[in-house]
Design a protein that fits this description.
heterodimer, A: 325 residues, alpha/beta, seven-stranded parallel beta sheet, five-stranded parallel beta sheet, 9 helices, 27% strand, B: 257 residues, Rossmann fold, 2 domains, nine-stranded mixed beta sheet, two-stranded antiparallel ribbon, binds flavin-adenine dinucleotide, electron transport (chain B), transport (chain B)
C-alpha cells in the first residue's frame, strides 16, 4: 500500500547526519512506492535539501527560524506539527538519536499514535510492514507492527543501509513559514565534550578501553589506532569510574549502545552490562591479557596479550595497509 | 512540593534470557526497579528534603510490582500507588501506559514528575515525554543535574555526551540519566517504616478509563534471540605474527577495514 512518509533530517554543524540518509532508506521501504518527503529545521537549512533528495527523498520541506537553530522540544514540535498539518502523512521516520528520542514520543502522544522506537530493521512481510527492534538490552529482538493509525518509527543509527547517493536526482525544496513562539525551554549553555572527532553512535570503527588501560594517558595508543582507522574512542564503565576518561564515552547498558562494523575492546573484561551496549557490533576484536576474560566469548577475533604491546603494532600494521591501499 | 516518580518493575537484564512459547521466559527471573528509575526516586527524595513536600511513586503493572514499590518507600518515598491493569488490559504498548499514567496524574496538581530515561527491558524511552505532552507540561530528558529555585528549574541534559544547560519552569517532567546521583540503599529503619506507609491500589475504573481508551496502537508479533555467534578465533604464535594475521583477517575476511 503506497503511503506518504515524512523523514525528519538532523543537522549537525551545518551538515546532515548520516542517520538522516539511513532514515530516508527506511522511509522508502515504509512508503511502499509512495512519496518520501524530507523535512529540515534550522536557521538556514534549505541548501541541504538537494543532498537529502540525492539520497532518496522525493522533495523537501523546510522550516527556517532563528529559534530552530538549536533543538528544543517545544520549537521542533511546533514546526513538525505544522508540517504534518500541511502534508497529512501516513508515516513518519526519525533517527533514534538524542533529538529523535526526545521529540518522537511527544509527537506520537499529540497525534494519539503508536511509535516503534529504536528500529534496527524493517521489511514488508505478508502485506505488513514489520519492524525489528532490540529488547532486554539487546539480548532479544522483537518484531512489531502498527495496528492502528500512523506508521511512526525511530531508527537506530548504523543499522539500515542508506541508498546510494544519486547526484542526478532533483526535487522541489519548499519552505513553510511557521510562527515559533513561547518556548518553555531556554538553552543557556552547551558544553561540548564528546564531539571532537567521530560521533560514537555513528562511528564505523570503535576502539574501546577498559580498566586495563590503567590511566588517562593509557588511552593515547587507543586514540592513535582510532585516528588511523577513522574511528572513535569508547570506554567501559570501569574506565569511566576510574576517571581515565569522561562518562560521555561509556558504552553499555547505562551508556551508549553502539553497532559499528568493527569494535576493538582493549582491557575490557566483558561484563554483561558492557556487552549490552556493543554485542551487536558486526565484528568484535578483543585484546586482553587474561585468556579467560568473558569478552573472548563474544569476540570474533582475539589476541591474548598486553594491550600496550599489541596496540602500537596494530596501529603500525594498519597504517601500512591503508597507505598501500 | 508535590513530586511524582514514574517507576517500572523490570526484568533484571543481567539474567540469562530464554524464550518459551514465543515469550520471554520469566520463571524464576529476578525483577528489579528499572535502574534509571532508582535515580529518579533518589532525586525526588533529595528535592523533597531540600524544598519540603511529598514524594509519591506510581507504577502501572500487576500486583507483583508491589515489591518494588515497597522498596521505593523504604528508600524514603512517602506514598506509593499501583495502577493494577491485570484484570482490564491484556496487551498494551507505550501509548497504553502513558495514557493511564497521564489520566492518573492530570488532577494531582503536580510540581515535578521524575521518570527514568529508558526502561532496560522495553527500551523505548517513550513514556516520559508522552506523559508530559498529555499533561501539557514541559519536559527535559536524560538529565544529569537538577536545581530548583522557586518555580524555575535549571537542568543539565546529556545530549550524546555533550551537556546542555537548560532553564525551564515548573510544573516539569524530567527523565533521569546515569550520573544524576547515587541512589541510596534502603536502610533497615527505612524498610520497617515502609511497611506502614500507604501503598494504594487502583484500577482503570477508578480513572474513568475503559479498555478501549487505552487499546495498544502497535503489536509484537514475534520475539527471538539474537543469532548465536560462532566461537571466535583466538590467535596464536608470535605477537607480531598475530597482529599481521588480525589485520589480514579484518581486511580480507571480515572486510571491515
Ligand atoms: C546497573 C549496572 C549498570 C552498569 N552499566 C555498565 C555500562 O553501561 N557499561 C559498562 O561497561 N559497565 C557497566 N557496568 C559495570 C560492569 O558490571 C563492569 O563492572 C565494568 O564493565 C567493568 O569494566 P572493565 O571491563 O573495564 O573492568 P574490569 O572488569 O576490571 O576488566 C579489566 C580487564 O582488563 C584486562 N587487563 C588489565 N590490564 C591489561 C593489559 N595491560 N592489557 C590487556 N588487558 C588488560 C583484565 O584482564 C580485565 O579483563 C554496570 C554495572 C551495573 C551494576
Ligand atoms: C496493560 C498493559 C499491557 C501490556 N502488555 C504488553 C504486551 O503484551 N507486550 C509487551 O511487550 N508489553 C506490554 N506492556 C508493556 C509496554 O509495552 C511497555 O513496556 C511500557 O509501556 C513501557 O515502555 P518501555 O518499556 O519502552 O518503557 P520506557 O518508555 O523506556 O520507560 C521510560 C520510563 O517511563 C516510566 N515507565 C515506563 N513504564 C512504566 C510503568 N509501567 N509504570 C510507571 N512508569 C513507567 C519509567 O520512569 C521508565 O524509566 C503492557 C503494558 C501495560 C500497561
Amino acid at each position: 500500500m503506497a503511503r506518504k512518509v515524512l523523514v525528519l533530517g538532523e543537522v549537525r554543524e551545518g551538515s546532515l547526519r548520516n542517520v538522516s540518509f539511513e532514515a530516508v532508506a527506511a522511509a522508502k521501504t515504509s512508503a511502499e512506492g509512495g512519496e518520501v518527503v524530507g523535512v529540515l529545521f534550522g536557521d538556514s537549512v534549505s541548501a541541504l535539501g538537494a543532498e537529502f533528495i540525492q539520497y532518496g527523498a522525493d522533495r523537501v520541506v523546510t522550516v527556517e527560524d532563528e529559534q530552530l537553530k538549536q533543538y528544543t522540544s517545544d520549537g521542533y514540535s511546533q514546526a513538525l506539527l505544522a508540517v504534518i498539518d500541511q502534508e497529512d502523512p501516513e508515516g513518519i521516520i526519525f533517527g533514534h538519536t538524542a533529538q529523535g528520542k526526545d521529540l518522537a514520543p511527544r509527537i506520537a502522544a499529540k497525534l494519539e499514535s503508536g511509535l516503534i522506537s529504536d528500529v534496527t530493521d524493517l521489511e514488508v512481510e505478508g502485506g505488513n510492514l514489520v519492524f525489528t527492534r532490540p529488547i532486554y538490552s539487546g539480548k532479544a529482538f522483537e518484531k512489531k507492527i502498527v495496528t492502528d493509525g500512523l506508521l511512526f518509527a525511530t531508527i537506530r543509527p548504523n543499522n539500515i543501509a542508506p541508498l546510494e547517493k544519486d547526484e542526478s536526482r532533483t526535487g522541489d525544496v519548499s519552505s513553510l513559514s511557521v510562527e515559533i513562539k513561547n518556548l518553555r525551554q531556554v538553552i543557556k549553555e552547551v558544553v561540548r565534550k564528546a564531539t571532537e572527532g567521530v560521533d560514537l553512535s555513528e562511528a564505523k570503527v570503535i576502539v574501546a578501553g577498559g580498566r586495563g588501560v590503567k590511566s588517562e594517558e593509557g588511552f593515547e595508543p587507543l586514540k592513535e589506532l582510532a585516528d588511523v582507522l577513522g574511528g572513535a574512542v569508547g570506554a567501559s564503565r570501569g574506565a569511566c569510574d576510574a576517571d581515565y576518561c569522561d562518562y560521555s564515552l561509556q558504552i553499555g547498558q547505562t551508556g551508549k549502545v553502539v553497532t559499528p562494523d568493527l569494535y576493538i575492546a582493549c582491557g575490557i573484561s566483558g561484563a554483561i552490562q558492557h556487552l549490552a551496549g556493543m554485542s551487536n557490533s558486526k565484528i568484535i576484536v578483543a585484546i586482553n591479557k587474561d585468556p579467560e576474560a568473558n569478552i573472548f566469548k563474544v569476540a570474533d577475533y582475539g589476541i591474548v596479550g598486553d594491550l600496550f604491546e599489541v596496540l602500537p603494532l596494530l596501529t603500525k600494521e594498519f597504517k601500512e595497509l591503508l597507505v598501500n591501499a | 512540593m508535590n513530586i511524582y516518580v514514574l517507576m517500572k518493575r523490570t526484568f533484571d537484564t543481567e539474567e540469562k534470557i530464554t524464550i518459551s512459547s514465543g515469550k520471554i521466559n520469566e520463571d524464576g527471573a529476578e525483577f528489579i526497579i528499572n535502574p534509571y528509575d532508582e535515580y529518579a526516586i533518589e532525586e525526588a527524595i533529595q528535592v523533597r528534603d531540600a524544598h519540603g513536600g511529598e514524594v509519591t511513586v506510581v507504577s502501572v503493572g500487576t500486583e507483583e510490582a508491589e515489591k518494588q514499590l515497597r522498596t521505593a518507600l523504604a528508600m524514603g518515598a512517602d506514598k506509593a500507588v499501583l495502577i493494577n491493569t491485570e484484570d482490564d488490559v491484556e496487551e498494551g504498548d507505550q501509548f497504553t501506559t502513558s495514557k493511564i499514567l497521564a489520566e492518573f496524574l492530570k488532577d494531582k496538581e503536580v510540581d515535578l514528575i521524575i521518570g527514568g530515561n529508558v526502561a532496560i527491558d522495553g527500551g523505548s524511552g517513550q513514556v516520559g515525554p508522552r506523559v508530559a505532552e498529555l499533561l501539557a507540561i514541559p519536559y527535559i530528558t536524560t538529565i544529569t543535574k537538577l536545581d530548583i529555585e522557586g518555580t524555575t528549574a535549571t537542568v543539565v541534559r546529556d545530549v550524546e555526551g555533550d551537556s546542555e544547560v537548560i532553564e525551564t519552569s515548573l510544573p516539569l517532567l524530567v527523565t533521569a540519566q546515569q550520573g544524576l546521583n547515587e541512589p541510596r540503599y534502603p536502610s533497615l529503619p527505612g524498610i520497617m517504616k515502609a511497611k506502614k506507609k500507604p501503598l494504594d491500589e487502583i484500577e482503570l475504573d477508578d480513572l474513568d478509563l475503559d479498555e478501549d481508551d487505552v487499546e495498544a496502537k502497535t503489536k509484537t508479533i514475534e520475539i527471538s534471540l539474537p543469532p548465536k555467534k560462532e566461537a571466535g578465533k583466538v590467535l596464536e604464535g608470535e605477537l607480531e605474527d598475530q597482529v599481521k594475521e588480525l589485520v589480514g583477517l579484518l581486511h580480507n575476511e571480515a572486510k571491515v577495514v
